[in-house]
Amino acid sequence: MAKKIAILGGGESGVGTAILAKKEGFKIFLSDKGKIKDKYKDVLKNLEIEWEELQHSEEKILNADVVMKSPGIPETTPLVLKLKDNNIPVISEIEFASEFTSAETIGITGSNGKTTTTKFIHHILKDGKISAGMAGNVGDSFARQVAENEFAWYVLELSSFQLDGIINFRPKIAVLTNITPDHLDRYEHSLEKYIASKFRITLNQTKADYFIYDADDKNISDWLKKNPIEAQKLPFSLEKKFENGAYLENEQIIVKINNTKFYMPTTDLSLQGKHNTKNAMAAATVAQLLRIRKQTIRESMENFQGVEHRLEKVLKINNVMYINDSKATNVNATFYALESMESATVWIVGGVDKGNVYSDLLPLVNEKVKAIICLGVDNAKITNAFGNCVDIMVETQSMDEAVKIAYKIAEKNEAVLLSPACASFDLFENYEDRGRQFKEAVRNL
């Protein structure tokens, strides 16, 4: 008899799971508490998959053998708790898709730098002529790609929410970029729980697998001291040196693995800044493990273009550079952005606060920021944190208004930086929408 799967959520991961489940002969019921986008409804109708929106028919869902839950639905939702009480496995799309592919996977997680590192690795693999798909939080869902393609490798960007729903998923290579407080609202405001969630990426790894991580990150080092892992460890660092791992020496990135050595001057990297040097170290370590030619790795790292909405230079107007860093949805990401600014900056900040602590930014704001433009429904925390640091602080309710005010304030050889340090759901659909609105407003000046 066909196995029954219930899918909660009709977005990219839900519909991707439906496509793969159909191919594998499951009996499917997809349910979304919100509205499903037309492009996804069309796919469901074409495949003749039973679905519903604006409700969850519990009876049907509780009748499933397995449930795939979209990452946006918290573990503490009453329906999810009820499923667990009934011993029905609740898994993520990553877990489901991994059962139906023999491809090896490279999993990338961390609070910041995930997307850049994922795209960086995929870019080098493609240049190295390795058959590789890219999925997870970027592009088409992993499940959909497993259903429609035959790749030898997958490069997967994984959020902690996706990792919470894995049981057997085991990446051949796991990368942990860093851990800073983020999404704590989903982890009972416990940093420990959030860290444990990130480390699930190495949960099923064995001695034959690799774990690449930032050795300068205190949260990571402390956790590893207390929790031994099976995988072979390959650290990267801007401060320490290793027998096996990546480090800096004379302004060069060195990657050493089992007596092979790769080096590249940091000045040749297409993306500058300390955090990008670390992303490059992680990517070069993966490339070395896959034995891609050193010359190919170097060329690939010289021409990698980076990610939209991440420190993306939009336009120079009257000698003022406008920079879109809408992807900075937490304080640590904004820290990197401000750290990389070389001129006085008009900073556009704000949105939905995920329990942010802004004190880390104070030295940088004092040093680099001449004016702050708040862009959120509730800006009280920002005005309290930085009110004494700058002479000009303005509250706005729309991107257009924020950019117009920035245009009036910014002078020659200065910069306007959108780096919100917050989620975007109060005034925008998501961070991409926020970034696009910023770029449009700048082009309309």
Automatic annotation (TrEMBL):
The keyword Transferase does not apply. SUPFAM superfamilies: MurCD N-terminal domain (SSF51984), MurD-like peptide ligases, catalytic domain (SSF53623), MurD-like peptide ligases, peptide-binding domain (SSF53244). Residues 108-287 form the Mur ligase central domain. It is found in: Cytoplasm. InterPro entries: Mur-like_cat_sf (IPR036565), Mur_ligase_C (IPR004101), Mur_ligase_C_dom_sf (IPR036615), Mur_ligase_cen (IPR013221), MurD (IPR005762). Residues 309-422 form the Mur ligase C-terminal domain. Its EC number is 6.3.2.9. Transmembrane segments: none annotated. Keywords: ATP-binding, Cell cycle, Cell division, Cell shape, Cell wall biogenesis/degradation, Cytoplasm, Ligase, Nucleotide-binding, Peptidoglycan synthesis. Its main location: cytoplasm. It is an enzyme of class 6 (ligase). Pathway: Cell wall biogenesis; peptidoglycan biosynthesis. It comes from the Bacteria. ATP binds at G110, S111, N112, G113, K114, T115, T116. One of its GO terms (molecular function) is UDP-N-acetylmuramoylalanine-D-glutamate ligase activity. It catalyses: UDP-N-acetyl-alpha-D-muramoyl-L-alanine + D-glutamate + ATP = UDP-N-acetyl-alpha-D-muramoyl-L-alanyl-D-glutamate + ADP + phosphate + H(+). Cell wall formation. Catalyzes the addition of glutamate to the nucleotide precursor UDP-N-acetylmuramoyl-L-alanine (UMA). PANTHER family: UDP-N-ACETYLMURAMOYLALANINE--D-GLUTAMATE LIGASE (PTHR43692:SF1). NCBIfam families: murD. Belongs to the MurCDEF family. This is UDP-N-acetylmuramoylalanine--D-glutamate ligase. The gene is murD.
